[in-house]
Amino acid sequence: MCLVNFSKTVEKMNSVLQCMDCAQQYPMTQVLYNCEKCGGLLDVQHDLTGLRKTIDRAFFDRRLGTLQAPYNSGVWRYKELIYPDVDPQHIVSRPEGNTNLYRAPRLAKWAGVENLYLKHEGENPTGSFKDRGMTTGVTQARALGMTRAACASTGNTSASLAAYTAWADMEGVVFFQNKQVAMGKLSQAIAYGATAIQINADFDRNLELVREISLSLGIYILNSVNPFRLEGQKSIMIETIQQLDWQVPDWIVCPGGNLGNSSAFGKALYELCELGLIERMPRLAIIQAEGANPLYRSYANRFAGLEAMSAETIATAIKIGNPVNYAKAVRALRWTDGVVEQVSDQEIMDAKALIDRQGIGCEPASACSLAGLRKLVDQGVVKPHETVVGILTGHLLKDPDATINYHNHTLPGIEARYPNWLHRAEASVAEITQILQSVHSRSNS
Ligand code: F0G
What we know:
- By secondary structure, this protein is α/β, with parallel strands linked by helices.
- The chain has a domain at about 100-125 and about 230-405: Rossmann fold (3-Layer(aba) Sandwich).
- The protein is built from 16 helices and 13 strands.
- The longest helix is centred in the middle third of the chain and has 17 residues, at about 225-245.
- Ligand F0G binds near residues 153, 224, 255, 261 and 317.
């Protein structure tokens, strides 16, 4: 058997940290989250000119199906685009990514398009897309010699941070809101052994607190303000497009909370285009919950500025009123000629019920993708013949309360339009048979 040495094909690349506003550069070894000169957000900037000469589609296609670490990860398969210079001994991988891209004809019909694919990021090791950013973030923490890492979280980041720090034998610290954190996520953070702190403050305040406290105690911050997180999350786009045999869909639709994912998507697509791996940009549609819609409001106002708000939605993952990556998300929208839409909690839960009913399922925030797509088709923004990829960001099991309460008709203010029934019976053959027959005849009528 021929063992290909995948790591030897690219020379040293030399990436830097670069401010997105003033282009000030910093070495990758500096622990930094914002520009020291102007406060702008930082990008990990790769040497695209050098990369253009060394990689192409076939380079990444050769790695498909390999069992060789770290290239068996759906993040590290694209190492040259994500963190070319990293010392492989620092890489902390589960391995993540390699998530399915489902063709969903029944949901496509419901949304009003011919071709809909759903990229299921809930199939990552801890059940959300966060693992793709956490592998790069924790790897960087290790490369920097940090022993403690922290985040504020609506739940998924904390589950992922807790798992990856445990795997790396580091100390994880997670700040939660003291209410409305979905059970699946809370239980993960506790089980993986992070120092979990419930705080009487919303996500936005917790993010301020974690930044202040981590800076003073020398703890590495792994919220999406950390540019290494976003490098890993770029792989969602790269992997999707490779799964489509490098053919670009017309639209990418994703939920938006702290706007790390949409920012990462914009950077990935921009770089893929610059590197000649794709021929054109897809358009990005970012969907927010009506009660947590600061980006939507700013978009409706031609990006006059971000107005922070107090957020409220059943999609607790995206209950965020002051998104830290706002400027990068606006840049992503400009690069991709993107749009922003908002959906109600009712629309989110109905779309979720339909995705669940397909047998793949997702958590409430993820259903923004389908609910938002249907609205955009209704408005004529997305055309029926266009090919769409919707991102499902988290697993169905993350938020069992939302699911059960929907089907039980006990979600305040929400009517279950696509309910399933939980039948109850005595241990009686006659009673159970009657239930089965009535269900069978109803589904055949
Ligand atoms: N979907 C899910 C399931 C999420 O957990 C999040 C964010 C998003 C969408 C939004 O992504 O922030 O990059 O725009 N969850 C974070 C957390 C904030 O703490 O787990 P974003």
